Inverse folding.
């Protein structure tokens, strides 16, 4: 022990260096010291933090495994969930059906199976089923043994009964997930998981005991109780008496208070899970809870977070209207540093969030991301969304646009109207003629409820390159119907821009404005007298000359 303490004191600053940390762990292994001894040594927090990085695929994680052994049962909540996060990172950064070193991964689970407490085994299965890569539940024999250990366990008290009760629900969810993976290759999302009727009833039956005991429970159990209650609120079919509701609310607040006092001790999985549950029950009092979560996110180290977790946090904060520039920047930095790990299933979400959140670093991110995108092999839908993101960030030029269009050339027939709309707007912005896009656009029937952005984009394209097409009249007829019902100035503003395009082009060709639409345009110009471009008389003269709008 003295050797280790002296070594730590002398080399603490060097522990941040991966190579030095590996040498340190090898030295410790040569001394007769348990992991408990290492825990008490100066510099232990550095070891714990280093476990969470993707670099743990080096010697650090295997060496730590050899030190842990039976001391796993002594781990506190934060240490143990950090350990679970490390196992998950082993899976996430793997390119094969198993982690890069399958034996070390199996050893990690074996330690928990042989020496872990009941709560630790529960936490492990919770992570494996809901959080870990789906390959584990399909292929890992030790995961099955852990399930059996929990299933066979006879609860000694109400706390263990709660954990086993929820484990039964997780087990049901796991079976559904496996069936879905095998049959449909689709993985269900945890927030939609509903509590079985029997489990609801058993939980409500013991709420009296929970009201008295829950404050003393392990943090893991309080997270479980909060999740069950949140899902009960979310499930509108549950019938609960007023008395039971009051008891449930009391227990919920007790658990929530304990959880929020320990937000910094939650690993990323539990933090993301807690935010989802908080979003499910929608209590007004939870406004303060969101502030606490955002504060936690602003100081949390995102380098230890998986790509999946980063997207979940970003999307949730956007959906609830609690965007935070510091958190957004940290997420973007995280994604930039691990850009090669972003799976194409996230491309649409990524681009939508970049567009909607107007992140200050989006231009920097898109520039770094562009060389990584395989345009030729990307889905046409993803290509259109990525194109829209580049256009909104003003990073699109004719050269880049041409590369996207070349990749889309043979896939245009697969595109729905919304995607063609994005391309049309990009073509108009850069005055780029592309016949394939136009051919696809005019295939769609036009109705009164057709997107006005699609109609305006198509009309603008026609103004540039196909002024006599029959769609020019059809689009204007729809606008007449819409403007008759509602004075939508956004349509009229865009129409004027389209007309100005015709005025500015050297080509004498321009679209014809149907008589029914002219009164709407004239009325709009009259209303904007003095506020429209500052050259009303000249503008009116050109409108009258080219479009006969008097």
């Amino acid at each position: 022990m003295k050797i280790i303490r002296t070594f730590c004191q002398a080399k603490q600053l060097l522990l941040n260096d991966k190579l030095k940390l590996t040498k340190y762990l090898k030295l410790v292994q040569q001394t007769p010291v348990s992991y408990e001894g290492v825990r008490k040594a100066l510099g232990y927090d550095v070891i714990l933090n280093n476990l969470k990085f993707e670099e743990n695929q080096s010697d650090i994680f295997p060496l730590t495994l050899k030190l842990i052994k039976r001391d796993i049962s002594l781990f506190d909540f934060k240490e143990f969930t950090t350990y679970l996060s490390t196992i998950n990172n082993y899976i996430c950064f793997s390119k094969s059906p198993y982690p890069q070193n399958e034996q070390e991964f199996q050893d990690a689970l074996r330690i928990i199976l042989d020496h872990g407490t009941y709560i630790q085994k529960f936490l492990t299965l919770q992570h494996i089923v809901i959080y870990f890569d789906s390959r584990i539940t399909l292929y890992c024999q030790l995961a099955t043994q852990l399930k059996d250990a929990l299933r066979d366990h006879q609860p000694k008290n109400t706390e263990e009964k709660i954990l086993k009760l929820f484990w039964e629900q997780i087990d049901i969810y796991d079976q559904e997930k496996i069936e879905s993976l095998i049959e449909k290759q689709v993985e269900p999302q945890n927030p939609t998981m509903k509590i079985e009727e029997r489990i609801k009833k058993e939980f409500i039956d013991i709420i009296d005991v929970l009201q008295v005991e829950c404050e003393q429970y392990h943090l893991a159990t309080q997270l479980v109780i909060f999740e069950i209650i949140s899902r009960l609120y979310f499930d509108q079919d549950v019938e609960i008496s007023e008395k039971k509701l009051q008891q449930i609310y009391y227990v919920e607040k007790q658990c929530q208070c304990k959880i929020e006092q320990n937000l910094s001790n939650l690993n990323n999985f539990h933090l993301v899970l807690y935010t989802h549950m908080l979003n499910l029950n929608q209590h007004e009092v939870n406004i303060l809870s969101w502030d606490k979560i955002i504060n936690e996110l602003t100081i949390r180290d995102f380098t230890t977070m998986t790509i999946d977790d980063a997207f979940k946090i970003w999307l949730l904060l956007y959906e609830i209207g609690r965007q935070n520039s510091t958190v957004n920047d940290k997420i973007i930095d995280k994604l930039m540093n691990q850009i090669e790990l972003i799976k194409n299933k996230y491309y649409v979400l990524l681009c939508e969030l970049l567009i909607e959140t107007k992140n200050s670093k989006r231009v920097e991110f898109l520039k770094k991301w562009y060389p990584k995108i395989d345009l030729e092999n990307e889905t046409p839908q993803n290509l259109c969304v990525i194109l829209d993101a580049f256009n909104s960030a003003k990073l699109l030029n004719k050269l880049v646009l041409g590369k996207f269009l070349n990749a889309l050339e043979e896939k245009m027939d697969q595109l729905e109207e919304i995607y063609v709309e994005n391309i049309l707007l990009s073509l108009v912005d850069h005055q780029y003629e592309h016949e394939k896009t136009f051919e696809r656009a005019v295939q769609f029937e036009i109705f009164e409820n057709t997107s006005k952005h699609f109609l305006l984009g198509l009309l603008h394209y026609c103004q540039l390159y196909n002024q006599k097409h029959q769609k020019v009249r059809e689009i204007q007829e729809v606008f007449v119907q819409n403007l008759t019902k509602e004075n939508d100035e956004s349509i009229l503003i865009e129409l004027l821009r389209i007309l100005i395009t015709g005025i500015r082009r050297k080509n004498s060709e321009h679209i014809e404005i149907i008589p029914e639409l002219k009164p709407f345009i004239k009325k709009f110009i009259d209303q904007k007298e003095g506020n429209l471009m500052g050259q009303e008389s000249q503008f009116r003269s050109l409108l009258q000359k080219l479009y006969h709008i008097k």
User: Anything to note?
Assistant: Residues 182-285 form one domain. Residues 1-11 have pLDDT under 50 and may be disordered. The radius of gyration is 30 Å. DSSP finds 30 helices and no strands in the chain.
